[in-house]
Amino acid sequence: MKEETCRFVGLGKYCQILVGVKCRGTDELCKFRKTEKQFQEEHDRAILINRAKHNCNKCKYMRTSCRLSSELGGEEDA
Questions:
Q1: Cβ-based neighbours of 26, under 8 Å, separated by 6 or more
Q2: CB-CB contact of 21 with 14 (8 Å)
């Protein structure tokens, strides 16, 4: 991960998670730093946990069920 940029580095080199914080996307000590692969793996794991607990049926945040990265079929949806 040393050479990979964090998924959350945004335009103007500001963090998309920590509002107002400048970031180059390479700070290894940042607790929020995730590569794209790490983010997708953790996102998919969270979806599987919530599906197993049947939380998706009563979700109050999304109108449609969250989809795993393997279910997106090339769509950019996260």
A1: 5, 6
A2: yes
pTM, 2 dp: 0.73
The count of other CB atoms within 10 Å of the CB of residue 75 is 9
57-74: per-residue pLDDT in tens? 888 888 888 999 998 876
Pairwise CA distance, residues 78 & 66, whole Å: 9
User: How wide is the angle at C-alpha 21 spanned by C-alphas 14 and 46, nearest 5°?
Assistant: 80
Beta bridge partners of 22: 14
Dihedral sign, Cα of residue 10, residue 12, residue 14, residue 17: negative
What does the pLDDT average to over 40-45? 96
15-34 mean pLDDT: 90
DSSP state of 69: G
